[in-house]
Amino acid sequence: MSEVDKKKSPARDASPGSVPAPRDASDDAKEFLSVRNLSVHFDTDDGLVKSVDGVSFDLKAGQTLGIVGESGSGKSVTSLGIMGLHTSERARIGGEIWLDGEELIGAGPERVRKLRGQKMAMIFQDPLSALHPYYSIGSQIVEAHRVHHKVDKKTAKKRAIEMLDRVGIPEPQRRYEDYPHQFSGGMRQRAMIAMALVNNPRLLIADEPTTALDVTVQAQILDLIRDLQKEFGSAVVMITHDLGVVAEIADSLLVMYAGRCVERGTAEEVFYQPQHPYTWGLLGSMPRIDREQTERLVPVKGSPPSLINVPSGCAFHPRCPYADVPADNITRTERPELKPAGDGEGHYSACHMTREQRDRIWTEEIAPKL
Amino acid sequence: MAAYIIRRVFAAVLLLLVVSAVTFAIFFLVPRLGGQTLDSMAAQYVGKSPDPDVIAAVKKNLGLDQPLYLQYWHFIKGIVVGAEYQFGPDPVTCNAPCFGYSFKTHTEIWPQIVDRIPVTLSLAVGAAVIWVLSGVATGVVSALKRGSIFDRLSMGVALAGVSLPMFFTGLVVLAIFGNGEYVPFTENPLEWAGSLVLPWCTLALLYSALYARLTRAGMLETMGEDYIRTARAKGLKERKVVVKHGLRAALTPLVTIFGMDFALLLGGAVITERVFSFQGMGAMAINGVTTADLPKVMGVTLVAAFFIVLCNLLVDLVYAAIDPRVRLS
């Protein structure tokens, strides 16, 4: 089993120049977005920052992938990489990104620009700073539409008002003229979503879309994204550090740590049978309303690692309470591969512990406390 | 909006009154606090051998013997309705707007100012066009090609431009190209421009260097904003991202600075006018100061203050037009 699947797992040492792992051709038909061995490194004065270091995943149309991890784990860098938005000359991007059968990293920037906003769109964390303060909401949506469609201003305006109405902005004809500062936080994010969806993109990347919003508004925005996804059949990548958000919306999950994927699988698998100590830590630090609040939340101890000097072996070993469970100090010397982990076929984790060791710790030590 | 403008104009008039009162006090009150007597002030206008009778006559003619507030009132009234000055046997009529009467040169101040404003205005407008265009263009390219040879070279030149004093660059330009006479625009537009090219460029060098650095800093900051990323995420062409989304926001703070710089120049580009021997407002101010011709200095000061107040009002209006978050109320 591991022999077959090894072929699919990303190469261990991903550097920008390395040859990416071969892709399984039969996947092409089904997968709308395939990321293979993506690496995004930044050349800085202090050294090479490996923000994303060999991440792979697939996403079908109509499905939602949640990418979770702490700040600095490479979630946003991954999403910006897919969009081709790393404009810094210091960014080194490697691997492959297949969008609907088209490879993006090797494609010219002009080609990727044409896909941006049309086939793939993105919404950002803080809608106030992501919207231009000097242009009205309506004109910003019209601009997004007219980049990719040769229509006159009147048609574009009609389309923009339609979109504002669709995302639930009351009196869209009037609010069309308003500026971002005249909108509330939730409305701004709705407007952002309207702008992103104005060209019916088939891939929507949402980078922490609810983080800057009130809790009551968060649920509304998530509902909206889910509804629109059903309506348009788009693939959604939801980036968040909030497991509650992905629990509500994601079909599959990708857990990132220090620029690497440590666990991926269906949302159900990752939530109910997590196979990586870091995922356990994330679950343990998540507040839950359905349990008695007798104990304090348990944070993942330590702080995120430097991306210039990533810890040797398993990047998580300095913070892992079970780093000494595998024998021979292997967690400190050898980088764990992403291997099939749980019962499900697509469930992978990068941990040196054996399945038996993990299952024992999960059932005996972790699960009872959650 | 209209109410706002009316209110601002009203405030501007009030401000000018304050400025005129302060200027008036500096010239007519401060010397007396400093120990000068009315006689010694009047004696300045008499000549080398003061004769007490003549001094008394001058004192009366100038109104120096009246209370200060009456003198000020007389001055302000003159601006609105004109005034009469008693000088020698016959009274001299000074038509409105009367900004005073020079007893040194026996001339009214206002016609001199009217004569000189076109010179200063030509100098300031032309230089401003050059420095804004060249400064902003250089700043934008420098910011986009940060760290490139162009960036380093232009920022080096800019540093030199900011550091070199006007009287140095002006004199160098003069030594190389020689001097030309100012030709009024109405006489011959082509020669007008020709006569102004050198002063324009000299003056613009100083400012465009500053504006290039400010634009570069503004662009670097703006291009890192989230809304620029959004603009790119829409699939906009890079040129549109830079100009429509980046530059517009980066230029906003420049509007304020430009309003101030331009207004100050309208009050007289003192050194430039001096170096190129132009008879503008700045030259008039220097002339007034060196000859202790107080009404002349008062006149120039008030006109300069007027331009500053006016430009500030315009800046506020332009600002509101650029940035919708600024509400005029």
Q: What are its keywords?
A:
heterodimer, A: 370 residues, alpha/beta, 4-stranded antiparallel beta sheet, disordered N terminus, B: 329 residues, mainly alpha, MetI-like fold, 2 domains, two-stranded antiparallel ribbon, two-stranded antiparallel sheet, 4% strand
**Largest pleated sheet of chain B:** 2 strands, antiparallel
Relative helix content of chain B: over 70%
For the record, give the distance between the C-alpha atoms at the N and C termini of chain A, rounded to a whole number: 32 Å
Q: What is the number of independent domains of chain B?
A: 2
Helix and strand run of chain A: HEEEHEEHEHHHHHEHEHEEHHHEEH
Q: Cα-atom Rg of chain A, whole angstroms?
A: 21 Å
- The structural domain count of chain A equals 1
- What is the level-2 CATH architecture name of chain A? 3-Layer(aba) Sandwich
In short:
The complex is a heterodimer of chains A (370) and B (329). Chain A is α/β, with parallel strands linked by helices.
Set out the fold topology.
The complex is a heterodimer of chains A (370) and B (329).
Chain A: H1 2-6, E1 31-44, E2 47-60, E3 64-68, H2 75-83, E4 91-99, E5 102-103, H3 109-115, E6 120-123, H4 127-130, H5 137-148, H6 153-166, H7 172-175, H8 185-197, E7 203-207, H9 215-232, E8 235-240, H10 243-249, E9 252-257, E10 260-266, H11 267-272, H12 277-284, H13 330-333, E11 339-340, E12 348-349, H14 355-366
Parallel strand pairs in A: 3-8, 3-9, 6-7, 7-8
Antiparallel strand pairs in A: 1-2, 1-4, 4-5, 9-10, 10-12, 11-12
Chain B: H1 2-28, H2 30-33, H3 38-43, H4 52-62, H5 68-81, E1 83-86, E2 91-94, E3 101-102, E4 107-108, H6 109-144, H7 149-163, H8 166-177, H9 189-222, H10 226-233, H11 238-266, H12 270-275, H13 281-290, H14 294-322
Helix pairs in contact in B: 1-14, 6-7, 6-9, 6-11, 7-9, 8-9, 9-11, 10-11, 11-14, 13-14
How would you characterize the overall build of this protein?
The complex is a heterodimer of chains A (370) and B (329). With 370 residues, chain A is α/β, with parallel strands linked by helices. Chain A has a single domain (2-119, 201-290, 298-369), classed as 3-Layer(aba) Sandwich (Rossmann fold), CATH 3.40.50.300. Chain A has 14 helices and 12 strands. In chain A, strands 6-7-8-3-9-10-12-11 form an 8-stranded mixed beta sheet, sandwiched between helices. In chain A, a hairpin with a 2-residue loop joins strand 9 (252-257) and strand 10. Mean pLDDT of chain A is 87; it is low at 1-29. Chain B has 329 residues and is mostly helical. Chain B folds into 2 domains: 2-109, no CATH class; 112-322, MetI-like fold. Chain B contains 14 helices and 4 strands. Chain B has helices at residues 2-28, 30-33, 38-43, 52-62, 68-81, 109-144, 149-163, 166-177, 189-222, 226-233, 238-266, 270-275, 281-290, 294-322, and strands spanning 83-86, 91-94, 101-102, 107-108. In chain B, the strands form 2 sheets. A two-stranded antiparallel ribbon of chain B has the order 1-2. A two-stranded antiparallel sheet of chain B has the order 3-4. In chain B, a hairpin with a 4-residue loop joins strand 3 (101-102) and strand 4. In chain B, helix 7 (149-163) packs across helix 9. Chain B is elongated, with a radius of gyration of 25 Å. Chain B starts with a helix and ends in a 7-residue tail after the last helix. Chain A binds chain B through residues 80, 83, 85, 87, 113-118, 121-122, 124, 126, 129-134, 136, 143-144, 147-148, 179, 181, 192, 195-196, and chain B through 225-227, 229-237, 245, 248-249, 322-325.
